[in-house]
């Protein structure tokens, strides 16, 4: 048993290492961002940040449910129809206000 590393075992084979580095370069991956996100992932998030995120999530769900209720009740269609009728009425008024050409 010798303490010298075996010639058949390479801890980091050069062809594999070069291929991996080429893939990282080709994918435009920023290694500093990966290392920064990996180091921040190891830290537990503060409880106030988690609470704020949960509160925002509940707010989003509440707004989404309200939007779905409005959609399912048909309120949007009713308002849209009223707007269309109002627009048509205003177009008729505008046509009535346009000067007519005198007949010769």
Describe what this molecule looks like in 3D.
With 104 residues, the chain is an all-alpha fold. It folds into two domains: 30 residues, no CATH class; 55 residues. The protein is 71% helix and 0% strand.
In short:
This protein is mainly alpha-helical.
Characteristic key phrases:
104 residues; single chain; 2 domains; mainly alpha; elongated
Share of helical residues? over 70%
Low-pLDDT stretches are: none
Report strand %: under 5%
- Mean pLDDT figure: 80
Number of domains: 2
Shape: elongated
Rg (C-alpha, Å)? 34 Å
Total DSSP helices: 4
Largest sheet: none
Helix and strand composition category: mainly alpha
The first-to-last residue Cα distance is 119 Å
Number of strands: 0
Encode the helix/strand succession as letters: HHHH
Secondary structure: elements and pairs:
Layout lengths: L13 H13 L4 H11 L5 H27 L1 H23 L7
């Amino acid at each position: 048993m010798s303490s010298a590393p075996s010639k058949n075992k390479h801890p980091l084979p050069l062809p594999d290492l070069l291929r991996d580095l080429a893939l990282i370069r080709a994918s435009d991956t920023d290694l500093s961002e990966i290392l920064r996100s990996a180091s921040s992932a190891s830290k537990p998030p503060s409880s106030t940040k988690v609470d704020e995120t949960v509160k925002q999530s509940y707010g989003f769900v509440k707004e989404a449910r309200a939007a779905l209720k409005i959609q399912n009740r048909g309120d949007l269609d009713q308002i849209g129809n009223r707007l269309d009728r109002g627009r048509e009425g205003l177009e008729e008024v505008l046509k009535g206000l346009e000067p007519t050409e005198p007949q010769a």
